[in-house]
Amino acid sequence: MTSKQLKESTDYLISKGFEAPEIGVVLGTGLGRLVDDIENPIEAHYNHIPYFPLATVEFHSGKLIYGLLEGKKVVVMQGRFHFYEGYDLIDVTYPIRVMHMLGIKKLLISNAAGAINSNFKKGNMMLIEDHINLQGGSPLAFKNVGAFGDRFTDMSEPYDLDMRSKLETIAKNENITLQKGVYVSVVGPQLETKAEYRMLKMLGADAVGMSTVPEVIVANHLKLPIVAVSVLTDECDPDNLKPVNIEEIIEVAGKTEPKMIKLFRELIKII
After folding, report:
1. Where does the Nucleoside phosphorylase domain lie (predicted)?
2. What CATH number does residue 189 fall under?
């Protein structure tokens, strides 16, 4: 990754009409319908953006969407890239750097995750307060990283306190259950064994997924305030573990999605 590549990607999007977005949004698995609310949308398919990772079959519909939401200029990633698809972590996080170059000042992230905390139920949402990186690498581990920000990026408070507080208030006002906890990011794509779920619980994880953490690390590298919410799509109880049902996970994400959209829209309105 070079500054020249980032500039070419950004210039392409500006030429398409992506003009000075204020807020970036990353939508997780089964959580793509926020884009239906965007006014005057302009779309750019990942395959057409210079230096964007090439879309896999899963991401043929992957695109950046620009427009107005609650009166703010937003740029939304409908579909993200995952480490488990064979991309490296620099590729996975490239879109975050492009959105930052376009001008975003805040970043909102959503994901689908499994509930490890036995007090959390599928269909709940969890505000991520902290994370554990078990992906075995860093999106900052490359030679010229110092050209883009501090190599030794501080991660003492990776998730913005102000936006977290605002989301908690919105959830309370809207009577939406919003749990709080620690998200652990693993490589995947296989799901965890019973023994692995027990280990993750011992490590202090409340939810587990296969994304988000690399994007959060890069956002902190760019000093870009970030907030992240997990939609809990299944319960990872090692003593009562059932075979995974991806269709059911997508269905739970879809049912919970309107609440997540409500949280994000209300937050965008006031930040």
Report:
1. 22-269
2. 3.40.50.1580
224-270 pLDDT, tens digit per residue, is 999 999 999 999 999 999 888 888 888 898 899 999 999 999 999 99
Domain of 73, in residue numbers:
3-270
Quote the pTM value. Answer: 0.95
pLDDT tens per residue, range 128-142: 999 999 999 999 999
List the end-to-end C-alpha distance of the chain, in Å, as a whole number.
31
How many domains is the chain partitioned into structurally? 1
**What is the 3-state secondary structure of the chain?**
CCHHHHHHHHHHHHHHCCCCCCEEEEECCCCCHHHHHCEEEEEEEHHHCCCCCCCCHHHCCCEEEEEEECCEEEEEEECCCCHHHCCCHHHHHHHHHHHHHHCCCEEEEEEEEEECCCCCCCCCEEEEEEEEECCCCCCCCCCCHHHCCCCCCCCCCCCCHHHHHHHHHHHHHCCCCEEEEEEEECCCCCCCCHHHHHHHHHHCCCEEECCCHHHHHHHHHCCCCEEEEEEEEEECCHHHCCCCCHHHHHHHHHHHHHHHHHHHHHHHHHC
